[in-house]
Amino acid sequence: MxxxxxxNGVRGxxxxxxxxxxxxxxxxxxxxxxxGKVCVARDTRTTGETIQHAVVSxxxxxxxxxxxxxxxxxxxxxxxxHSMKTNGLIIITASHNPPDWAALKFVDAKGLPxxxxxxxxxxxxxEKNAFKRAAWDQIKTERVYHFAVRxxxxxxxxxxxxxxxxxxKLKLVVDTGNGTTIAAVQMLAEKLGCELNTLNSQxxxxxxxxxSEPTKxxxxxxxxxxxxxxxxxxxxxxxxxxxxxFVDENGEYVIGDKTFVLCEEIILxxxxxxxxxxxxxxxxxxxxxxxxxxxxxxxxxxxxxxxxKIREIKGVTGGEEVGAVIWPELSLGKDGxxxxxxxxxxxxxxxxxxxxxxxxKYCNYKTKLEAGPERFSQVSxxxxxxxxxxxxxxxxxxxxxxxxxxxxxxxxxxxxxxVRIFAEAxxxxxxxxxxxxxxxxxxxx
Length: 445
Ligand code: MG
Hints:
Blueprint: E1 10-13, H1 19-32, E2 36-42, H2 48-61, E3 64-71, H3 74-84, E4 88-92, E5 101-107, H4 116-127, E6 143-144, H5 148-157, H6 162-168, E7 171-175, H7 182-191, E8 195-199, H8 220-229, E9 233-237, E10 244-247, E11 253-254, H9 256-270, E12 275-278, H10 283-291, E13 296-299, H11 303-313, E14 317-320, E15 324-326, H12 336-347, H13 352-357, E16 363-370, H14 375-388, E17 393-394, E18 399-403, E19 406-412, E20 418-425, H15 428-444
Parallel strand pairs: 2-3, 2-4, 3-6, 7-8, 7-9, 12-13, 12-14
Antiparallel strand pairs: 1-5, 4-5, 9-10, 10-11, 14-15, 16-20, 17-18, 18-19, 19-20
Helix pairs in contact: 1-2, 1-4, 3-5, 5-7, 9-10
The structure holds magnesium ion.
Magnesium ion binds at residues 95-96, 238, 240, 242-243.
């Protein structure tokens, strides 16, 4: 079991994230990737600069050559790392977590985020003090690269029919949540000829505008702004821009599941290949893949597992229900900015609510149960019980059972003390009943 690594990097409050800790972690990563050029990016958090100095120091000490990208969205950093073919990437970002959190995400030379399984090897270097420190005459210098956002936006625009979008003069409201995406959003809106209205656009690590996670409650201001301004589309990002959610022209919040399925449909119209998603994603994803004669492959919940599988099977896209879509032509990371550009392109043809209406319809119900570290073994026991009852179980992550037109999953959260229960069916009543039935069965295990 890893001591520090979670599903995607090392997250924690500042009592964990001393500069000494960040520096050791970066030096261990630099040793693990065997040196070379390493891109370093950060989000808007107040702690970013302190941690960045420590990360750079750790990297330099093991002979790496840091390339500083500055405050940029995570997908921008992942794109630049991919296009420069650097040996590694460290993103200093706690994504959508509260302001007092800090975190490092690590990406290897293949563009794969370092999962908890692989993070164990990095922790071992720290524990055994096995850093490969460079000799005085082998130490490199840091470089600064100022054009990360421009490069990323230019790359996105190669995949969008900007001429067609410009003719429509779409009106957008974008809530960047005091995060990293505003510069890229402005460039994209200008190139696509959209009228841009912004909310919480100043980059500010105190996050005065709203909580960083783009949940329906957190983006209430966006919902009303879309209506008041009569906009064609509302958009909200999380702090580091890998996640995105949309609000339709009627001011209705659209859950991330639907965004992923819409993007899947857009992508499969253009090219053929397998699609990757987590076991906790809507059946609509499977229906769309089947409609286009393509395979849908499930992974565990967590970005690194999606990226690994896409690379392994040459997937054309991957995504998960929190509003995350991977566009492998740009990088193996979740890219909210590319997603925004492709959805805006689609809205130039049809209102967003109509695009969503055309997708297979499912209703879901989520509930959770507090549970300590024993939650993992409880879920395994539950799997055995369900099997004994004769159901066929998908156990890639937790226990998923599929029925005709419905399914449910029981999962132990990797990062929080919860067991999550999620059900999907054709009506909200059926979804709720199924989730509650699973909750009851789980409690009786
Ligand atoms: Mg994020």
